[in-house]
Design goal:
314 residues, alpha/beta, Rossmann fold, GTP Cyclohydrolase I, domain 2, 5-stranded mixed β-sheet, 11 helices, 12 strands, 33% helix
């Protein structure tokens, strides 16, 4: 979502009018996003702005009331840096739905959990400058020919491989009443395929094979088989741990097939992944992991579980 200068200044002005008058001695805008709203708030409250040097060195009256201002709180990292002991009150123009609620005193508008691009950022996506900084951190020359378009390519790639954060990308699960086409199926249905995800601890890939099975209820529902792969892809397309991933997928598919009194007889998912966070760093050993999520008859009945494991060669 793109935030224009006009929208930012109008929203900052609305925030300024919400704030108590004659309470704050100074206003400090966190660089760089907080400068514009801090200027607007400073004018409204008739409280001078502090420079970053004066704020960080404490060059103001010891008991002064200082209001910290920023354009956005997302994860809260920036605010924790400038206000680690929560000594000062904080006003932000925008707050994300998932943002920590205890770090801000005032905010004007709550925004969805998606990327916001501000006009004071270097480029249209707002992320490319950060990718450049990562390249510089690892020792690269961001101006060499081979890297000139790399930040743009990486930003585009992130939008693709982390599409699981966008609710509009969640696939619609097509289901059918068992027997509506004249065939009642109550045996095991097995699907397998590949998955690709990223470890939430180191942001490197883990990938491998998945094996999904379910036994429909004769009076329940069956699922379009391609939807299984789409749900696997959707929940894999975010920072994950494999233990959560199997649960996310099975929860979604179970809920899609669940009818009161006619739940699936059983559902199982096994995922075998290679984790590069172990293979290429740290221990530098084969990072293979197998996780399973079993429901219904697959969890309760040894015969059904062993049949499933035999079919997938466990």
């Amino acid at each position: 979502m793109n935030i224009t200068y006009l929208q930012l200044t109008e929203d900052a002005d609305s925030l300024a009018k919400m704030l108590p008058k004659n309470k704050y001695n100074y206003v400090f805008g966190i660089p760089t996003g907080g400068i514009i709203p801090a200027y607007i708030i400073s004018k409204e409250l008739k409280a001078p702005m502090l420079s970053i040097k004066d704020f960080t060195e404490g060059n103001f009256t010891k008991d002064a009331e200082v209001l910290i201002v920023d354009d956005l709180i997302d994860g809260g990292t920036t605010l924790k840096k400038f206000n680690p002991e929560k000594k000062y009150e904080v006003a932000v123009v925008y707050r994300k739905e998932h943002s920590p609620k205890d770090l801000t005193t005032y905010f004007y508008r709550e925004m969805p959990n998606e990327w916001l691009s501000f006009p004071h950022e270097k480029d249209s996506t707002g992320i490319e400058e950060h990718i450049e900084r990562i390249l510089e951190y690892v020792g690269e020359d961001i101006n060499r020919e081979g890297l000139l378009d790399t930040p743009k390519r990486v930003a585009k790639m992130y939008g693709e491989i982390f599409g699981g954060y966008k609710k509009e990308n969640k696939p619609k699960i097509t289901t059918f009443l068992n027997g509506q086409d004249g065939i009642v199926y109550d045996q095991m249905i097995l699907d397998e395929g590949d998955f690709y995800s990223h470890c939430e601890h180191h942001m490197v890939p883990f990938f491998g094979k998945y094996y999904f099975a379910y036994i429909p209820n004769p009076k329940g529902k069956i699922i379009g088989l391609s939807k299984v792969a789409r749900i696997v892809d959707y929940y894999s397309a975010k920072l994950q741990i494999q233990e959560r991933l199997v649960q996310d997928i099975v929860n979604e598919l179970w809920n899609a097939l669940d009818i009161p009194g006619c739940s699936p007889r059983g559902m199982a998912l096994v995922m075998r992944g290679e984790h590069l966070c172990k293979t290429m760093r740290g221990a530098k050993k084969k990072g293979r992991m197998t996780t399973a999520e079993l429901r219904g008859i697959f969890k309760e009945d040894d015969k059904a579980r062993n049949e499933f494991y035999k079919l997938i060669s466990i």
